[in-house]
Amino acid sequence: MTRLSRQTLGQLPKDVGRPNYDPARVTVGIVHLGIGAFHRAHQAAFTDAVLAQDPSWGICGVSLRSPETRDALTPQDGLYTLKVQDGDGEELQVIGSVVELLCAPEDPEAVLRRMADPATRIVSLTITEKGYCHNPATGTLDENHPDIVHDLENPGRPRSAIGFIVEALARRKSAGTAPFTLLTCDNLPSNGHVLKRVVTRFAELRDPALAALVRNVASPSTMVDRIVPATTDSDRSAIAAALGVEDAWPVMTEPFRQWVIEDDFPVGRPAWENAGALFADDVAVFEMMKLRLLNGSHSTLAYLGYLAGAETVADAMALPGMEALVEGLMREEVSPTLPPLPGFDLAAYRAELLQRFRNPALRHRTWQIAMDGSQKLPQRLLGTIRDRLKAGAGYDRLALGVAAWMRYARGVDEAGRPIDVRDPHAARIAELTQGMGAPEGIVAAFLTMTDVFGTDLSESALFRLTLINALTRLFEKGSAATLRDYT
Ligand code: CS2
Q1: 253 within ligand 1 shell (Cβ under 6 A)
Q2: Half-sphere exposure of 413 (CA within 13 A, CB side)
Q3: What gap in Å lies between CA 86 and CA 186, rounded to an integer?
Q4: What's the 114 CA to ligand 1 centre distance in angstroms?
Q5: Is the distance from the beta carbon of residue 298 to the nearest atom of ligand 1 less than 6 Å?
Q6: Which of 19, 138, 167, 356 is the most buried (most CB within 10 A)?
Q7: Has the ipTM of the complex gone over 0.85?
Q8: What is the DSSP code string of 3-32?
């Protein structure tokens, strides 16, 4: 079958959206580290919508690990299909904003050259929580992280995003080129500050003069939101049937999308506001709301849902009691911890989240969201619990989410079958809890992970007791029956 490409764009059915500019005229202005599905459904789509105004903001997409995305998209001139779907229907749009693809481990020099090029004015990132090589409880650089150790020893051949950013800034400095703006799009609270903190610390360890420059690089915070399940082979077949040409890596998503960005771009930016992005002075409140309500619920749905046998988020939402649990978690336990957002209808936002989780067209696997819990839980559930503890308020549903993670992360499901746990601390968790059966011991073992829980939660007797109660319920009844208590 013919492949999607600039040449075959003209053959697509009329109702498939396509670039309203000439993709061949687009040049690189943004280097994006972590060219996964999320970036392609979110920032790349916002950029695609404004390229007609200024084609100098094309994206060079970099994979920091595997060549798969580059190999899929390069023969397609970077073009790919975005399928936007919910229970009411679907729309297809070919996106043309990614004009170059690089695989960092194969050729780090090519990546550094692109990043150091004066035409590159933004370096954006979706490298997931663990890509920041930081201590999730404190947000500081983990100086013993193997990639950081490697990059300090080999600054010209980095592996981590941090190493690439600092080396590229060093090269720009020697060439007299102004620094690019850093634009993190990962689900971390005050993500711009976290990124700035880790790159500055890394630069300090390399050279104090470089640190002075890095400290002043613009690193606006952002809140990003769009649900993007991993693409499956059946998605590929459906897209090929609809397009009449083959697309090796289409991306599936929902209609909802949101991007709130601090407006701090000293060397310019695309007019993303014309595509619906919101520029705000302070993004922290939006971020906290989204991380605690959406992502906190998502992780809870993922662990409890997986344990109860639900393959997707929509399946998990259909388990008796689950929707009531998530609704109560958001309204009673999370919402009171959020700073006021004047004029914002929080009840409507929560209702919309429940509807998004129910989206029957998206097959978003609980297993996918369950990945990297040790990196996600601090900002999704534990910060909220910390605030509830301080306020002397209850947090039973949040604790059930954390207990479900503990049950899951040990790697054995309720029927005794192995779980494929993906987490940088999977081996450590298995070792810490090896041979244990009683909830008391398991909770105590997890709470030694102060890099996840912080010393305060690790030492809280009340928190420990609440977790033990939750984990006991999960062990005694199983997840499905525990959920039924909420009906
Ligand atoms: C999800 C997020 O995989 C996960 O952990 O919770 O990717 C979520 O879908 C996005 O943050 C939605 O904006």
Answers
A1: no
A2: 16
A3: 24
A4: 29
A5: yes
A6: 167
A7: yes
A8: BPSTTTGGGS-TTSB--SS-GGG--EEEEE
